[in-house]
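Bug #2210: C-alpha cell dump truncated for GntR family transcriptional regulator?
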Amino acid sequence: MPRSEQGAALSRTEQKRLVGSLVDALQDRIGEGEIGVGSWIRQDRIAEEYGVSRTPVREALRQLEALGVVEIIANRGARVKLPSMRDIAQAFEVRGVLEGHAAWLAARNIGQSQLDLLKETGAWFEDVIGWAARGTEDAMAKARADWFRANGTFHATVIAASGNHQLEVAIDQLHRRLPRGLTWTALGGDPRLLKENAEDHAQIRRAIEDQDGELARQLTIGHSDRARELILMRSGELS
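Reproduced locally. Full output below:
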C-alpha cells in the first residue's frame, strides 16, 4: 500500500477511535446524571472540553442518536432523550434476562473474593435501611449514596463473576440508555421497600453461593421485574 494510503487508513482508524471515546465519555456523563435528561448538548462546547474539532463530536452525537440516547433536532442541536415508559419497561425486561444469565454463570464461576464482596454489600444495604428510617434530609442523602454503592457493587460483581466479557458489555450498554437512579427514585426512600430490595439481593447471593444457577437466574429476573413494576407504578402516580 502506498505511504499516502497508509496515512489515510491510519487517519480513519484514529478518527473512529476518537469518535468511540467521545460516545463512551458522553454516555457516562449522561448515565451519571451529569448531563441531565432534556439537556442540550452543544457541539462547540463539547469540542472545546475535549480539545477536538466539531466533526468527531457531530459523528458521536449521531451514534448516540442511533442508540436512542439523544435526539437531534434540526437547527437546534442534540438533546438528551427521555425514554418512554415502554422503552424503560422493555429495557428492564431485557436487563433481567441478561443479568439472570450472568447470575447463572456466576454460580459456576465466582471466586471467593467476589463472593466475600457480595456478602459485604449485605451490610451496606442494611445501613441504607437504617439511614432511611431516620427520615431526615441528611440521612436520606446518606441512604441514597450508600444504596448506589451497594447496588452498583453487587450487580457489577455478579456480572464480572460470570466471566463473560461480551455479556458485561451488553449489560453496560443497556444501562447507559436509561436515566441513572430510576430504581432508587421508585423506591422513594421507603424503609419497607428498601428492606425488600435488600432481601432480593441477599437471596440472589445465597443462590450463587450454593451454586444453584437456575435459582439465581430466576431470582435475578424476578428482582428486575419488581423494579420495573415499581417504576411503572410510580410513574403512573406522578403523571
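Output looks complete on our side. The beta strands are 40-41, 70-73, 77-80. Marking as cannot-reproduce; reopen if the truncation happens again.
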